[in-house]
Amino acid sequence: MRLHGKSVLITGAARGLGRAAAVACAAEGADLTLLDICADLPGVPYPLGTVGQLEHTAALCRDAGAAVLTAAADIRDTRGMREAVTRAEDRFGRIDVAVNNAGIAAPSGKPVHEIEEDEWSLMIDVDLSGAWRLIREVGGAMSARRAGSIVNVASTAGLVGYRHFAGYVAAKHAVVGLTKAAALDFAPTKVRVNAVCPGSVRDDAWAEGRMLAEIARALEVPVHEHEKTFVEAQPMNALIEPEDVAAAIVFLASDESRQITGSVLTVDGGFSIR
Ligand SMILES: NC(=O)c1ccc[n+]([C@@H]2O[C@H](COP(=O)([O-])OP(=O)(O)OC[C@H]3O[C@@H](n4cnc5c(N)ncnc54)[C@H](O)[C@@H]3O)[C@@H](O)[C@H]2O)c1
């Protein structure tokens, strides 16, 4: 029970890595605030999480023994984020751990000079600024308590380039930079900020993740071939499982990592070492 008594807020918790992280945190004794947009976003060419999916994640966490609060909020919306954080603090007394997981993989699939202004802005607003907004909302109280852990879910796209993914790559590189800068700002008050960089994660039916399929679609890799393509790209020749990423998040959330801040933990089967 490495998170016993901790209050953990996770964004993008309706499905995918957010769901896997939520259930793993619940199994380690955490109480949870699960936040998701629960709506589609104009400009994102695939469906996002739903209220039903968020409630399903909540039910799985309650089955694991957690007290759970759900919040439908868009990480682009400061007021909505502030309300969700306030509700979490009212319910659980504080937020010990904030996991910046929500993200979009598209609009993508174009060379950099063909990206439209609104496509670029959307990607940066969700994948970069969304993480900064939550850090801003929780950072003051964490600093005042001289305790807290923030985990940012970046990507191998935060470490290397990918063709026709300039917006996503730029946003995820910036999340890594944000992690390091925020870690320095908070270090005197013992609040830790770390990043996890997953490689290609399997679109697990249980977690209902769909990012790999959407990346394949954006790269025009036939969806039925995409697993093979991504498996071959990772030196350990396996897709990452959502549980592998969740385990890294639990470690960085827990006091086991109390001397670790500003670090970038890859969960990529060796992809980024060559
Ligand atoms: N799946 C992978 O292969 C992979 C690899 C590396 C990094 N990542 C990162 O992991 C994170 C989770 O990805 P996933 O694979 O679970 O994707 P997913 O699309 O299955 O789930 C993402 C969740 O985030 C939510 N979301 C999106 N925009 C939001 C917004 N503006 N406000 C609130 N919620 C919003 C969606 O509704 C959805 O429930 C993302 O940051 C992604 O970039 C994923």
Care to count the β-strands? 7
CATH-derived architecture? 3-Layer(aba) Sandwich
How much is the radius of gyration in Å?
17 Å
CATH H-tier superfamily? NAD(P)-binding Rossmann-like Domain
Uncertain segments are none
Task: Please state how the strands of the largest beta sheet are arranged side by side.
Answer: 3-2-1-4-5-6-7
Q: Mean pLDDT, nearest integer?
A: 97
Q: The biggest beta sheet, please?
A: 7 strands, parallel
User: How many distinct folded domains?
Assistant: 1
Number of helices: 8
* Estimated helix fraction: 40-55%
Give your account of this protein's structure:
The protein has 274 residues and is α/β, with parallel strands linked by helices. It has a single domain, classed as Rossmann fold. Helix 5 links the parallel strand 5 and strand 6. The longest helix is centred in the middle third of the chain and has 29 residues. The protein starts with 6 loop residues before the first strand and ends in a 7-residue tail after the last strand. It binds nicotinamide-adenine-dinucleotide. Nicotinamide-adenine-dinucleotide binds next to helix 1, helix 4 and helix 6.
